[in-house]
Every structure is written in structure tokens, then in C-alpha cells.
């Protein structure tokens, strides 16, 4: 899928529980307060493994096939609403989160048009966070989605295992690429589970 173009060549809809939810608020809150002291490190070291899924939307939670077969969006919903997401892909995502206990961090451009709470409502599961939006380096180099994921990881050293899922190539170490023609498949889920652990 071409960046800036929705499934089937349409205008961008943009790229816009689990047992892990029990400790989610404490986990996110502890890393948004940056003034950690040395006494906190042993406690983090003893905490359960923190697994993170960096989630794209378009080409993962929808597809060219879904776009061609789905009924028109309700009037007034626009390109960013729930009808743009494939229910089958959403169920696969929820199953992945249940199996692995991973935290979902949205890397999709859908994060630019929805709050974290709205993204959680769209997905039917808790969104732990979103990646930062980076533009260009001081010397003018355009920053990539991979740069945004790395920036988030640098701010969250407690993460033990992670993987990104996207229909475009992302320049990160751990990455599962979906086919935008069909979106997230059972085979993709198994590859993600293999990386995240169950």
C-alpha cells in the first residue's frame, strides 16, 4: 500500500481484554514520569516481561479486498471510523493480545486523528500508548516510522520483547509485514506470536 493512499487507491482513511490490562495503567504511568531513582531499578527488574506490539492500521486491520467488499461508510463517518476496519482482522488482533499479553502501541497515522482512548474504543482493547510524531532531524533528514518506534523504545527501557506489524517495510529489527491485499492473516498472527512469546 502506498503511503498516503487508502486501500483500493481511495483517499487516505489513514492508518488510524487481555490479562495485560491489569498492570497497564501502572506500567504506562511509571514511564511517563521520567525522574526515576536508583531504588526503582530492582523493582522493574523483578516485574513480568513487558511485550509490545507496534500496530499499523491500513493494510493490517483493513485491506484492498475488504475495501472492495465492504458497504459504504455511514454518512458523516469519514475515512477514519470503525467501518474502515475489518472485523475479522480485529478479532485476530484481539486473539493475539489475549495469547501473548502484549501491550499495543499504535504506530499508524491513525494516531494523528484519534486520541488513545478513541483508538482503544475502535480496537476493542486497551491501547497502551502511541509512538511520537517525528518530522526531520536538525540537518533536514526526514524521519521514518522506524525512527519513531526507536524513539519510543529508548524512552521505555523496561520493554523486554517487541515487534512491529505493518504493510509497508519498516526499518526496525523485529518486523512482520502484512499483504495489503488481504490484511492481517492467521499466518501473520502466528509469526507475531513466535516473536512475542505466549
- CATH topology assignment: Rossmann fold
CATH class, please?
Answer: Alpha Beta
What sequence of helices (H) and strands (E) makes up the elements?
HHEHHEHEHEEH
**DSSP, total strands:** 5
Spans of at least 5 consecutive residues whose pLDDT stays below 50 are: 1-25, 27-46
| Overall mean confidence score, pLDDT | 81
* Portion of residues within helices: 25-40%
Computed Rg: 17 Å
State the major sheet. Answer: 5 strands, parallel
Q: How far apart are the first and last residues' alpha carbons, in Å?
A: 30 Å
The backbone outline, from C-alpha atoms, is globular
Helix segment count? 7
Number of domains: 1
Overview of this protein structure:
With 198 residues, the protein is an alpha/beta fold. It has a single domain, classed as Rossmann fold (3-Layer(aba) Sandwich). It is 33% helix and 11% strand. It is built from 7 helices and 5 strands, in the order ααβααβαβαββα. Strands 3-2-1-4-5 form a 5-stranded parallel β-sheet, with helices on both faces. Helix 5 links the parallel strand 2 and strand 3. Helix 4 runs parallel beside helix 7. The longest helix has 14 residues. The chain is globular, with a radius of gyration of 17 Å.
Write the layout of secondary structure elements.
Blueprint: H1 24-32, H2 40-46, E1 51-55, H3 64-69, H4 87-100, E2 103-106, H5 116-123, E3 127-130, H6 145-154, E4 161-166, E5 175-177, H7 186-196
Parallel strand pairs: 1-2, 1-4, 2-3, 4-5
Helix pairs in contact: 4-7
Short note summarizing the structure:
The chain is of the alpha/beta class.
